[in-house]
Design goal:
Elements (H helix, E strand, L loop, with lengths): L1 E9 L4 H12 L3 E8 L5 E9 L2 H13 L3 E6 L4 E12 L5 H10 L3 E5 L3 E8 L1 H11 L4 E6 L3 E4 L7
Antiparallel strand pairs: 1-3, 1-4, 2-3, 5-7, 5-8, 5-9, 6-7
């Protein structure tokens, strides 16, 4: 089963390498990893998606908590808001531009760049929504895709602190 872990870590050089190294040494594959600064400049938040059963995830969480630079780890798989961002560069001919714009609007995407022969479309949502949009764009010819990976936050007033 896929699990989403949120970790608060010190915002210092080498912390990401230590966390990734821990996963590598244990033989776990990170499916998605997103890192960004929090409301406190000295702390970063990592959102890590990893595949494993409950026992495996418990072991990973314990190992992460042993790292000095890791301040808090929480499994946010359940009862959370999850989003991903993708930029999709797609071929756009004069004949297909209208269709592509319509599809982007249906998916609440935004066209963020227009070139003579292509669009770059920004889309946010869950993984299924992003995948469905990309599948629809394949018929027009995808030139490039960049995805952030999943970020997640627990619903309600509870916060990872």
């Amino acid at each position: 089963m896929r699990h989403t872990l949120a970790a608060l870590v010190e915002n210092k050089p080498g912390v990401l390498a230590k966390v990734a190294g821990l996963f590598r040494r244990r033989g776990f594959n990170i499916e998605s990893l997103a890192v960004g600064i929090t409301e406190k400049p000295q702390i970063s938040r990592m959102t890590i998606v990893v595949d494993g059963d409950d026992k495996t995830i418990e072991q990973v969480t314990k190992q992460l908590n042993k790292l000095i630079e890791v301040l808090k780890v929480s499994d946010v798989t359940k009862n959370s808001v999850e989003r991903e961002l993708a930029l999709v560069k797609v071929n756009a001919t004069p004949q297909t531009r209208g269709e592509i714009i319509e599809i982007a609007n249906i998916f609440r995407g935004r066209i963020v760049d227009v070139a003579r022969d292509s669009f770059i479309i920004e889309i946010t949502g869950d993984e299924d929504k992003i995948n469905a949009f990309i599948d629809l764009m394949r018929q027009y010819g995808i030139k490039e895709v960049a995805r952030t990976g999943k970020i997640a936050m627990q619903r309600g007033s509870k916060a990872l602190e």
